[in-house]
Amino acid sequence: MERRMIDLHCDALSKLQLNRELQFLDDKRLDVNVERMIQGGVGVQCFAIYLSEKLGKPQMSYILDQLDLYTSEIVAQGIMPISTAQELEEAERQGRLGGLLSIEGADGLEGNLHYVKVCYERGVRLLGLTWNYANWAADGILEPGGRGLTPAGRELVRFCQRLGIILDVSHLSVKGFWELASMAEAAGTPLIASHSNAYTVCPHSRNLQDDQIRALISLDGRIGITFVPWFVKQTKTVERMDILPHLDHVCALGGEKHIMFGSDFDGIERHVKGLEHAGKYEEWADLLLKYYPEELVAGWLYGNAKAFLMRWLP
Q: What is the model's pTM?
């Protein structure tokens, strides 16, 4: 089996923004770096633009700063920027490491659709409307009100649908999820959960309920099973084996062709034992192959995400 992984979520860019000394080539303080991508067989990594609360009020200038860092620190190290289906194929053909760009939380876009277009032109292809809390577009999953999309948020969704930005439901409130799913179904546009697990297996609010998983499957979306320990199991120590029940559960709901991975590397301080950084993906693949057919594992690691991106990237 060819070992080439696609990971749909990491926060390396946010770390690079907060600490300018970090080197993307091989800095061990980064879960994801060039060395570890090669070691783990990560062919394509999606880099999220997440604005840390340490920066203060979210603003477009911070997003632009991360876009500049992507070019100067990540692309400069040989990562091929991927913004089209053709570039995805080309990266694979050349055996190049590829990078995708997403935005985690619309806060810094300041309610300005022109800023969304600027981000699209700079290569952003995925957008999560919220982080955990409320912003101008919608409520996040930890917001006590649990409201859905605002009128400005609905306008943002329609704009993204026209532009071709893939929308991400991870972190979105339950009400927001269903409103967005309804809009996606009506428009025939895609949805993913870039880094969320199954609530039935681990009852954390950031995980997806069975009806949400079924909705993503029916929309032919994708679910990025994540390595955030407290989304995997509510115990002090979490092992790699503890992720398998999430895979089994999504499969039981009919989602075996909809599973991918969204590690959340560099967005977490505590790790699943044996999945501490991107270099561990190779061992993770070996473990999966002990329990599941090769075709299934190949789909989870690469094929399912690739088929989705080939369909929905411009």
A: 0.98
